[in-house]
Amino acid sequence: MRTFELTAPTTIDEALGDTGTFLAGGTTLVDLMKLDVLTPQRVQNINGLPLRGIDTSDGLRIGALERMSDVAAAPGVYPAISRALLQSASQQLRNMASIGGNLMQRTRCGYFRDVDMPCNRRDPGSGCPAIEGANRMHAILGTSDACAATHASDLAVALVALDAEVRLVSAEGERTVKLADFYMQPGQTPEAEHDLREGELIGEVVVPKLDWAANSTYVKVRDRQSYEFALTSAAVALDVRDGVIADARVAAGGVATVPWKLGVVEDVLRGKPATQETFEAAAALAAEGAKPLSGNAFKVSLLKRTIVRALLETTEGMQL
Fold first, then answer.
1. Could you give the dihedral angle defined by the CA atoms of residues 112, 141, 238 and 209, in that order, rounded to the nearest 10 degrees?
2. pLDDT tens by residue, 3-41
3. FAD-binding PCMH-type domain spans which residues (predicted)?
4. CA dihedral sign of residues 308, 310, 316, 318
5. Domain extent for 17
6. Residue 233 and residue 159: Cα distance in Å, rounded?
7. 276-283 vs 298-315: helix axis angle to the nearest 10?
């Protein structure tokens, strides 16, 4: 790790009026600084800022500095969100990691984290070895010939499924962006990962009120039971009335360069009976447009099965 200057602003105005990389839990930033992937000269410890709170009185509002473990345990948090958080990292890391930091975490692609290897995200124009190299963990959706790295956040998948927004603050004011639009697919500029502008900070996450999101879940398929990133994952919520799906929310992780909203699957589910046959028919469309690489074609079928499993889990115990 290289030397850097550390500051600790106590107000949002002070933090936004300064320069430097923001540090909250540090569970991603510090790792990347140790690897020399990131080498900021100035780091702002923002843990003293008033960006906390969990409010479930009208939907869900989560301060960006809330810790993952606290949000997962909070009453009234939708099950898909709690389960996504509890299947992330380890208990020790969840106690440290912030919600804003989790949403801003960088890819776990091994080429990105190895400064001796080319990587278009880290060094634009240098190339993407994953396209022809070791790519079992990489994306099959939203890729380009410049990048196939998966988005790492479990939480973001659940939030995208539930149509969450992020409130962004800056010296010029505030703006709100749907999380599904916040993340950018790589195209030919994979270094541009999100719509956070210079001088902006995530203030809070806002999930709209959705009473039937109590019928939601998050299913994560991985190589081992804990402390592992997803091969595939699915966040789903279903509104089932008299055995018929009135509405649905579905998103996938572990298979795309961004948290992948599956509107086509939602459309097929709406108005259909809540049966395994319906779930399989909807999930069959989940991998439309997929471009598997040499080592990850298995993700096409695994994604479909993961979505069916999540839908079945959501309807367990319902009188259908």
1. 50
2. 999 999 999 999 999 889 999 999 999 999 999 999 999
3. 1-212
4. negative
5. 1-48
6. 13
7. 150
